[in-house]
Amino acid sequence: MLKNFKITLFFLLFLIIVCFIINLNVGYISIDFSSIFQDTTQSTIVWLRINRVIAILLAGIAIPTSGFLLQEYFQNPLAGPSVLGITSVASLSVAIFIFLSQDWAIPEFLQNSFLGIFAILGSMIMMFLLLGFSNKFSDKSYLIIFGFLISALSGAMVSILQLYANNQSLKNYILWSFGANNILSTNQIFILILLIIIGLFFSFKSIKPLIGNSLGNAYAKSFGVNLNQLKYLIIIASSLLSASVTAFLGPILFIGIVVPHFCRLLYNPSRLWHQWILNMILGILIMQLFSIISESIKIPINVITSLFGIPVILIMLMKSKSYTSQ
Length: 326
What we know:
Elements: H1 2-24, H2 41-74, H3 86-100, H4 108-134, H5 142-164, H6 167-177, H7 186-213, H8 217-222, H9 227-249, H10 255-266, H11 272-297, H12 301-325
Helix pairs in contact: 1-11, 2-7, 2-9, 2-10, 2-11, 3-4, 3-5, 3-6, 3-9, 4-9, 7-9, 10-11
């Protein structure tokens, strides 16, 4: 089993390297990477493409990890930052900041920081709401319905904000919501890396107690798993990972649901450490492929993830229904 895992991992890593090379060379013009250390137009384009590839790599790590943690904690394959409303509330928080600060003179580096702070605060508020309502719902599938309702409410509030926003703020929000991953600066990349590293640290701390939690609350308590601490580890890790990507790349939808699903098909779902690694590797590969498609046909990446994710989720629902009817 472990040998099969290593073979799968090496094969995926090889595909990732190929996608990196292709992604760096996708664009309007051909570039010479030897100009990377020169102060020319070519070097500027080179760094923009490098930043794009790095940003997509980070999104491929963060969003599937967030979805994986939520699915394992709630024991629901449809749980994820987009379906549970975390991404929508983070988007609403970013919209509030963009529209309310339209007349403020804020330096660019501070504005980028505030985007991240508002997105993280919004996603953490949503996670606390989910965990609070999870104690009231006997069937945790109701959390999915709750998440859809919050997503709809967030969308309505964003529409109201757009109605009263000036043209420039509206344009900034629309560009952000399209997932404009090709305009990140190096400073933004560093902030994104820092937030994701912190999120991955809390993810690492939550995997071992999640293994106990997957066997039931009574079993977890008997082995000394602090379920309350696990709850907060999941909140912090999932919120940081999903909100940081949402803040800088816009809402990347459904990847947090479908990547963990594919990983369970590829390898033993009970081995959570292996599943976590596989989620990050496969997430990077899928996001790089989507970035190549996005840059080639000039369609926003969040549109592509939705076109890919929605049919996969529908197939998952139909398969689960067929299993329960047997």
